[in-house]
Structure formats: structure tokens, C-alpha cells
Amino acid sequence: MTADETAPDSQDPASPESPPAGRWVSTEEAARLLGLSDRTIRRHITRGLLKGERDGSHALRVWIEGDAAASEPPEPGDEPDAAPAAGQGSLPAVPMDAVTWALAEHLADLTRHNAELVNRIESLAAEAATYRERIRIYEDQEKALPAGEPPVWRPWWKRLLGIE
Prior knowledge:
9% strand, mainly alpha
């Protein structure tokens, strides 16, 4: 095992509680291996979903376990030139852990957005009830007005002095 492939806590490899195989990688490499952005990797570290620590040069390293750790980074010439044709059913080579994390993060965003929408609906319903009450009051006032000709308009000074 190289230094990059050692477990975060040294334990006897023969013990049943030995940590899963993994390795330390940079945040950029972790983002590429897990199919996430560098910023999302940092968020996962902050939330405790990924283990991360600073090395001697203060660079952030991420502990990657399981299938993602076993996959080696491709060489620059190994990347395909064109995307597979539609209908061939080719899925991206993203570990299930990354898909689960991405879906969990998306679900949390949607849940938060739904809660905001529920609050907005409740406030709009209260506002609509207020407007319905105002309409009812105005309709009652309109019914209470005497029927017939509208009052004759008079200049303000005649109204003030009580003339005619």
C-alpha cells in the first residue's frame, strides 16, 4: 500500500473492523471520480458526508472509499472523442455513492423549496381571505347607497360654506 492508499486510521488489516479500502485524493480528483463539482465536494466535507483534511501544504485532501477509490484516473488520451449515440443505454461511470449523494442533496433542496412554497401558499390564502372580506364590505356599502341620481357635484367652497 502506498501512502495515498492507507486508511485514515491505522488498524490491523486482518481485523474484522479494518476500514474499507480507499485513498486520499485532491478535491478536484474527488469531484471527477464522484461526478460532482469541487464546491459540492467541499460542502460534503463540511456536512460530514466525506472525510477531508489539510495536508502539510494546507491543501485539502479527501478520503475516497469503495469503488471510486479503486478506479484509477484516466490518462488524458484515454477519454472518448465523442459521446455514445442516443439509445445505446450508456450510463456515466459514476459510483452509486455519488449518485446517492447528488440525489440526497437535490432532494434536500426540493424539500426546502417545497416548504417555502407551502409558507407562500398559506400567506397568499390569508391575503385572499382579506380581499374577499373587503369585496363583501364594498358590496354591502354599494347596496346601502340610495338608488337614483348620483349627487350633484359642487365646488369645494360651496360645500364648505354650505351654499346651495
